[in-house]
Amino acid sequence: MAERVPIREGTFREGPDGGALLANKCKACGQIFFPKAKLCLACLHEELEEVPLSKKGTLYSYTIAHMPSSFFPPPHAMGYVDLPESVRVFAPLKIIEDKPFDVGMEMELVIEKLGEVDEKEIIGYVFKPV
Q1: Beta-bridge partners for 46
Q2: For residues 74 and 55, what is the distance between their CA atoms, to the nearest angstrom?
Q3: Rounded to 5 degrees, what angle do the CA atoms 46, 48, 50 make?
Q4: For residues 65 and 73, what is the distance between their CA atoms, to the nearest angstrom?
Q5: Is residue 65 within 8 Å of 78, Cβ to Cβ?
Q6: 3-state class of 57 per DSSP?
Q7: Would residue 92 be called left, alpha or beta, if left means φ above 0 and alpha means ψ between -120 and 50 degrees?
Q8: How many domains does the chain have?
Q9: Which of 35, 52, 65, 73 stands the most exposed, by the fewest C-beta atoms within 10 Å?
């Protein structure tokens, strides 16, 4: 089995529960940031704690591209998903034939293989329709 390597370290965790996106939360004002920030962009406080984000959200907007990219053969979808923590995440979207995208639909996080580089599996987060 190939070694699994995250596309961006510290952005998510993989586990038996399927995984979660990792954000950070300001200890002073409670603002949540994804991807993580080095300091609070709202109040400039420097103490932030890591928090997992919800696995389900609502599709805010999307587009379907027909040009190939590094890990996504055409057609592939990208979009924004609003999470309950008031965070809007830009992410790849998994196209499922019998579930067309519709703004406002419920989406769910999955951690999966995006591709391979130097015999290593590159894994990342994707949202799919529920």
Answers
A1: none
A2: 26
A3: 155
A4: 9
A5: yes
A6: strand
A7: beta
A8: 1
A9: 73
Nearest to 42 by CA among 24, 54, 63, 62: 24
User: How far is residue 125's CA from residue 130's CA, in Å, rounded to a whole number?
Assistant: 15
According to DSSP, residue 9 is labeled T
Question: How far apart are alpha carbons 55 and 78 in whole angstroms?
Answer: 17
Structure tokens at 60: 């805010």
Q: How far does the chain reach from its first CA to its final CA, in angstroms? A: 29
The boundaries of the domain holding residue 101 are 3-129
Its pTM stands at 0.92
Rounded distance between C-alpha atoms, residue 80 and residue 62, angstroms: 6
Four-residue CA torsion sign, 85, 22, 58, 60: positive
User: DSSP letters of 30-51?
Assistant: --EESS--SS-TTT----EEEE
**Which residues 6+ apart lie within 8 Å of 117 measured at CB?**
5
Tell me the pairing of strands 12-13 and 20-26: antiparallel
